[in-house]
Amino acid sequence: MISADDWKEEQERLKSVTEQLHKEIDRLEPEVAGLHHQVTDIRKQFWEEVTVNTSTDEDFEETFHSIKQQEALLSERERSHRQRLKQWNNMKRLLPSPYFGRIDFAEEGEGSPERVYIGVSSFVDEEGLNFLVYDWRTPIASLYYDASPGETEYETPGGTVRGTMALKRQYQIRSGELRNVFDTSVTIGDELLQQALGNGADTAMKSIVATIQKEQNAIVRDVKSHMLIVQGAAGSGKTSAALQRAAYLLYRYRNRLTADQIVLFSPNPMFNSYVSTVLPELGEDNMQQTTFQEYLAHWLEPEVSVESPFDGLEFALTTEDRDAYEARQQGIRYKASEAFLDALRRYAEWLCLQGMRFIGITFMDRELVTAEQMSSKFYSFDSSVSLENRITMLRDWLLKELAVLERKERAADWVQDELNYLDMEDYQAAYGSIRKKYEKEDAVFDFTQQYLDAYGDVPKRELGEENVFDFGDQEEEFLRRMIAKERFAPLRRQVKRLKFVDVIGLYSSLFDDASKYRDMTGEQELPSLWSDICRATQEKLERKELLYEDATPFLYMKELVEGARRNNDVRHVFVDEGQDYSPFQYTFLKRLFPHARMTVLGDFGQAIFPQATNLQETDSPLVRLYGEEHTTLIRLVRSYRSTREIVSFTKPLLSEGEGIVPFDRSGGKPIVTMLDNDGERTARMLQDLAKLQAEGFGSIAVITKTAAESREAFGSLTAAGGENLLLITKETLTFERGISILPAYLAKGVEFDAVLIYDASAHVYNRESERKLFYTACTRAMHRLRLYVIGEATPYLTGLDRELYVTES
Ligand SMILES: Nc1ncnc2c1ncn2[C@@H]1O[C@H](COP(=O)(O)OP(=O)(O)OP(=O)(O)O)[C@@H](O)[C@H]1O
């Protein structure tokens, strides 16, 4: 605590800043409202005032300039409105707690130190001369996170500033009231952090700007790396640091970077809702959030349906068929690898010379262009032209072929039949559309040129003024043309979308047999169960389905053939739960976002998918992606989420858990309850849930291994009188407070006050490969952890020191 005089001084300062904030908010209020009206008014008047006159070139030019002028005025007003509004909102956000930190810093060669108060945004006094509050992202504020009192320095875009920090102080201000003040010699004192972590779990993640730790700050403020890899223990603040980093980047590059140029890949849709409030809380717009699954589905469905990664995991967790399990695991690992990626590249080279597969174009049960014709046309193009360009050439050739075929079809009997049965409505619609097109003098008919070539101009008057055709030869021809054109439209559309490339066939033929695969790809090392992998892959493809592990390679191969998609706007890509992505997926992301820097956050201790990428290795595919010199690897070992007792219990569950350091906050030891049967467990869990709620824990999770087990838990707890239970599935979009029942893989990234492990028995968790899933489940708990065992406990538990938990029966 500080001296009474200092306390008084701080209180007075807080009062003064609060008053100035109120004053500024009141001053800006009418202006903000007024600007809004002005903008709306200009928008309304915009088209009224502009007379569009295109009679002469001069008129056209004048109109053009007039529109440009109005538009510039409007944009200026809108920009100024947005800025004012942001300023106003920032001040309102400051009111309840204008700052959380202060440093007194004297620059080298200058006299007395400046008092720098730090808050969630900057606030300047009325004259605009003094910063009453500095935004936490300003260069000088980095001292608050990184330095201890004494001689120190900080970086600015203009160079290094050296000086002495005389004081570092932290504040707790709630609803405008000064509650606590701490002077601290270290970076961020533990008192504030203790209080921040002691609170209950929220339905939404909170910003941590007041207590960002030094090692986290390195993540937040890194602007050098192309690839920033963060390997951090469960609860070490990876997601939190990533979100503050996005806010930092938006501030630092505020004139160049917008929120929609940042993309976050989340582990599941519910996680999106969990983190979506942090950036708005910091006064920034939300970045784009998606899941990799969503991305794949967007580009691949409905032609093929993509299995969800969770269904793949469910299969691995539930199958009794050991052979199928082993083959699937091998398949996943191989298809996730750089080796498979290289094999696909070589396959594409092979396809340059042979083996392309096409789908013939069929019309009314007749094959108009066969796959063989396409293939021979394709290979007749110069072989030095890339696959992608040859596909474009083939497309253009097909469109021309279709135009010729369409012309021929006009004389066909089916056209005559349709003509005879054209009802009045169709007839009039046809007439109307022809007339409309002809009335637009400069309009170019899609096929006007062809028509004119064949029949010469049709004088307007011949189309008749009245609503009936003069059903002469020309009109009949015209209608025939329309009918054929309409029937051919879907074919043209398909060709334009390159649907004639048999992507499924191309991918499937990779899995015909081992020797063919070796020939096509040059790959020598194949997984031992290759033939089982081939069978499983092709079985799915026949049903136009893709296993999750096939989806990225499939899309990659499709792009090798048809041309790659690129998103050139995005500047930063964040991948959370990065250990669950394959090296293949990372290469794909790098290609998709060529102008983006990547931040990957993850924990190899929570790698629950077999395609996992180890983030801690310095020589990993992830490091190779941008090269060592452009990559920074940061390790976080301090775990903030769980109490010391929970961390002590969870870390020996992992072989590599030794280095995890708990934050010193205590709670009860985890409790393992030994039971005889399901009924006993249900009754016991309901009692425990009620107790936990009575203790004030608002967010509780019953975590199961699989989705089926979640349904079972939900059913039995509800039948026994459990109320307001939430069953979370992979489709659940929002994270809510209360008692959630969910499988461990859906609990990734989120946290709860208390966690109840539904079944920690040996018959549920016994494979070594599921240890990390169990670890992930247990590490979701902030304050309390309970585990239920029927019969024998899982070997993960029996391997632990008995002192780490309490056993009850
Ligand atoms: N510097 C900090 N100050 C206050 N709270 C923090 C800090 N760092 C982390 N936390 C809190 O610790 C908890 C865990 O953080 P977060 O979810 O970001 O960790 P994570 O590393 O992404 O965890 P996991 O990998 O287990 O999902 C959150 O409640 C977060 O608010």
From TrEMBL:
Tagged with keyword ATP-binding: yes
Alphabetized Gene3D superfamilies for the sequence: P-loop containing nucleotide triphosphate hydrolases (3.40.50.300)
Keyword terms, alphabetized: ATP-binding, Helicase, Hydrolase, Nucleotide-binding
GO MF terms, alphabetically ordered: 3'-5' DNA helicase activity; ATP binding; DNA binding; hydrolase activity
SUPFAM superfamilies: P-loop containing nucleoside triphosphate hydrolases
Cellular-component GO terms for this entry: cytosol
Domain of life, per lineage: Bacteria
Ranges for domain UvrD-like helicase ATP-binding: 211-643
Residues given in the record as ATP binding sites: 232-239
UniProt-listed Pfam families: UvrD-helicase (PF00580), UvrD_C_2 (PF13538)
One GO BP annotation of this record: recombinational repair
NCBIfam families: HelD_BACSU
Protein name: Helicase
Organism: Paenibacillus agaridevorans
Classification of source organism: Bacteria, Bacillati, Bacillota, Bacilli, Bacillales
